């Protein structure tokens, strides 16, 4: 279930004639006119939703996921340094934080997140960008973090800050990464589950709240914040508690990690041979194309 507070401004203000509504109606109309739809998911993960879309559109839906790029060579500087920093830490001990390339937090949200991370005492990698309203290309200012936070975390080797690009797939697949604090865009979700890394969700808009609902039902995700980008509130105590629950030595964390590993094996099995779900999905799509 999606709460009203989780809807974006575009949806809340939609009247059927606005740009977002016009675009979505056009896209849905085009989907209804196609012969089939390819989706980047795994049948075992979303069977009931795949069946629902197929019934609604009255066309075959072919799941062919997870479609994940290979491990690209790290950049000459940031990428290599990140992996070397990860190598210094024990298995499953590092929290990776990224909200994707299109999202930023508000100033107060950045501050509370930083305080919560520090209170958790867990090492972390944070792909950090200027707050909303500031050009993402601008330099990050120390004033947006607690006093001396970045310097203190780096000196203690507890924090690695990335101001720009990060090799996300390489980070998630590294043995030292234990959890992913994410906005839950679909590509990030697939990369995390494919690497067996449980998710701490902070959705900010778009389809991200729907993604989180599915992940929570699966038992591989814990929410740290709800609401949309404008009204999502989080307190440092909640951040610290959720990080500890997901990464700590406790029953809830162990169950979460076990379920995530099960999903990882399902993902890897989807393309194991031609009899597996995603391989069969692609074969079914090609058969349909060749029949036209």
Automatic annotation (TrEMBL):
A Pfam entry, by short name: UDPGT
Keyword annotations of the record: Glycosyltransferase, Transferase
The keyword Hydrolase appears for this protein: no
A Gene Ontology molecular function term of the record: UDP-glycosyltransferase activity
CDD domains associated with the record: GT1_Gtf-like (cd03784)
InterPro entries: UDP_glucos_trans, UDP_glycos_trans_CS
PROSITE patterns for the chain: UDPGT (PS00375)
Domain of life of the source: Eukaryota
Protein family (similarity comment): Belongs to the UDP-glycosyltransferase family.
Name under which the protein is recorded: UDP-glycosyltransferases domain-containing protein
Species: Rhynchospora breviuscula
């Amino acid at each position: 279930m999606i709460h009203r507070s989780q809807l974006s401004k575009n949806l809340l203000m939609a009247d059927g004639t606005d740009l977002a509504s016009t675009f979505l109606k056009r896209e849905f109309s085009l989907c209804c006119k196609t012969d089939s739809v390819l989706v980047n998911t795994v049948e075992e993960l979303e069977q009931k939703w795949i069946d629902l879309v197929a019934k609604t559109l009255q066309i075959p839906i072919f799941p062919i996921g997870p479609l994940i790029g290979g491990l690209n060579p790290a950049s000459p500087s940031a990428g290599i340094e990140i992996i070397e920093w990860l190598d210094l830490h024990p298995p499953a001990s590092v929290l990776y934080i990224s909200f994707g390339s299109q999202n930023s937090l508000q100033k107060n949200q950045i501050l509370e997140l930083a305080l919560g991370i520090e209170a958790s005492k867990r090492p972390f990698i944070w792909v950090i960008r200027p707050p909303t309203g500031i050009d993402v290309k601008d330099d990050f200012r120390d004033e947006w973090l607690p006093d001396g936070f970045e310097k203190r975390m780096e000196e203690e080797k507890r924090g690695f800050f990335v101001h720009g690009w990060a090799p996300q797939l390489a980070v998630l697949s590294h043995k030292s990464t234990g959890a992913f604090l994410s906005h839950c865009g679909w590509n990030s979700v697939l990369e995390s589950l494919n690497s067996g890394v449980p998710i701490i969700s902070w959705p900010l808009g778009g389809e991200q709240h729907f993604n989180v609902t599915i992940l929570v039902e699966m038992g591989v995700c814990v929410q740290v914040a709800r609401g949309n980008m404008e009204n999502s509130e989080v307190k440092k105590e909640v951040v610290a508690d959720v990080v500890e629950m997901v990464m700590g030595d406790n029953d809830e964390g162990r169950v979460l990690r076990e379920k995530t590993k099960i999903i990882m094996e399902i993902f890897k099995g989807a393309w194991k041979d031609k009899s597996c779900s995603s391989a069969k999905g692609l074969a079914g799509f090609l058969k349909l194309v060749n029949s036209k």
